[in-house]
Amino acid sequence: MHTGHYISGGAHGILILWALFGGMFRSDPPEVQVADVSVISEAQFAAMMQPQAAPTLGEEPAALPVPDVTEPVPTPPAADTLPTSLPDPVEPDISEPDPAPEPVIATPEPELVETLPQPPAPEPVPEVDAPEVALRPIPRPAPRVAPEAVPAPEPDVEAAPEVQETVEQSETPDVTETEEQQATAPEAAATEIVTEAEEPARAPTASVRPQVRPSRPAPARQTTEAPTEQTPAPAAEATPTSPEDTAALDATASAIAGALEEALAGASAGTDSGPPLTQGETDGFRIAVQDCWVVDVGSQAANVTVTIGFDMDRSGRVVSSSLRLLSSEGGSGTAVDTAFQAARRAILRCQGDGYTLPQEKFDQWKTVEMTFNPESMRIR
Amino acid sequence: MKQIVASLLAVLILAVSAPGVVLAQSGPLRIEITEGVVEPLPYAVPDFVGETAGAQQLAQQIARVVADDLTGSGLFREVPREAHISQITSFGSPVQFADWKAINAQALVTGAVSSEGGRIVVKFRVWDVFAGSELGQGMQFAGTPDGWRRMAHKVADQVYSRITGESGYFDSRVVFVSESGPKDQRSKRLAVMDYDGASVQYLTGGNALVLAPRFSEDGQRVLYTSYETGMPRVHVLEVGTVQSRILQGQDGVMSFAPRFAPNGQTVVYSLTQGSNTDIWAMDIASGGTRQLTSAPSIETAPSYSPDGSQIVFESDRSGTQQLYVMSASGGEARRISFGQGRYSTPVWSPRGDMIAFTKQNAGRFHIGVMRTDGSEERLLTASFLDEGPTWAPNGRVIMFARETQGAQGSSSLYTVDISGRNLKRVRTPEGASDPSWGPLQ
Questions:
Q1: Which domain holds residue A351?
Q2: pTM of the prediction?
């Protein structure tokens, strides 16, 4: 019943004996390879590295023995041993070779024969043709007009066919009493009738900026000096009671009258000048032109600032013949001319029927100097 | 007392009247305009008048080429012929300016074509419609019928010049590399064409790889790099005869990126010796060479300034590709590009005021321009691959090559105005790259 134990014990004993005496735990040291090293001098090394003379050839080597061909040459396989499917044949590149370059045939140079003479001037357009621009509507003729406008009578004057001065009672009582009558005047007339609907509003069309308090200009001093010179110096020292006072007062009165006359004359002469253009009116004019100012930002002309002068008529249209280059800055002559042409086109193209400007201020804008500065548009 | 009061009253009256004098505007109204519009100038080109039998078709074709040239520049916009009120039936008849004003045509080009004895005569006039006058003087060209396109280009150049004040570029040619086949097996040939892609003619066969052709100043010769010998070598080709020869140089070294000097007698190019690439100059007549750079880095893509006094080139001496300017005789170079990314293929503008370049940054390629001192850098394009800019003869337009992405991608030529506007493709029969714009003929 302990057979298994005996067998196991015997086997383990054999295994232990084999391990002890069979060489399993014997450790032989590995073999160490030893190379002989010798120290040589530099001269010996150089001598070793010198190319050695080629060995002399001895007798020519004997010809190699030709091996006997005993093995049969393998025969090519039979046709029926070919694989059943062939790979797709590669199509040869049959694309046509590039044509050989031919001498470049130079296109014949066109000849500049001549410049042409001036073209004929356009014929004047007959007046019966439609106008180039639409005319402003003509108001209907008034039912009652006069060749010249008659100023409206004063409010307390009755209308009458003849002018009659007011007759007032004389202070002297001995004059024969006459019937009191009112003054008369012809009925007021105008060159056209303006209805209420058409009557322009009395309100100003644009608010005027508050005027800047004038500085003390030199002309004012001159004008004030003039009457002073006219006034006799002794007059200032004279007393009002003296007989000379009358002459001094007369001189002062004449000076005042002169100043008034001068002021009134100035006012009547500047009827169309009116107040200065407002900022809004100036901006409107500027925007109208700049909308037509085409700037070629990549050109040399974009480096040029030009100032153009021109005149305008009362309808706001530019007098084409008055357009002139006043000054330029930057760029060469050609670039300046190009910049001038572009600015000129802008002024002419955008005027349409005339720029919208207040006619009552015509004196302010009848002559214009416009500067075109493309600096902010230049490509950077 | 009365006298004093009277005097004060006089002074008061004068003082009251004085503001009117002061406030009244003295002199003209002065206005400054600083903002305009950037838009093409509208113009009209009615069909030219055929003055002889059989010239009518040619007259129409010439008028169309003139219109295509002007409109294609991006500076002009043609008023459609359907909108014309007046018809030009005779070249000598007066122009009805009101009719052209009404359609807002600022310029008008009229012309006529006659044919006689195998020669044609093209005459034209340019009108300033709003001024009601002629711009410049009428001109006429004569030539053979097969040169009608060049005559049309010449007319367009005249119109362009008279309106913009700058010379045109329509009667010019471009040499480029014509490409065919897939990317991994691409055949490349030198070809020359009109600036608009017409009249393509081939200068070399497709048996050898060719790169970077460059026109001479007179347009009669072309420098290019060829691998015909297995190694890149600079060749010079006579356009008229299509005869080419290897430019003299050292055997066994690579030479590439050539470009003519403005005088046409000197060539600058890159030469690789070992691992170093430098810029050299060669006198074509004598074959004498001179080394212009000697840095232990890669210097290449040299380009002369128009006066021939300076050279701009690219170098990686700072670690990345940047642009440098040096004297044409060599010497110390100054760096002009400092932006992010890598700069390459610089080309000096014919005007002399700008340098065009290729820039690679953030995975995209750009064509850009900068001042010759490196200031005012502007990128004009952006795509997967834009490279190789070349200037139009008037320095106003840049042509370059754009390659599309992918295995089927191909290369095409594009033009762009230096303002960055008017980007458009040049139609070529095959793929195209490496353009070089020739002079105005």
A1: 279-375
A2: 0.67
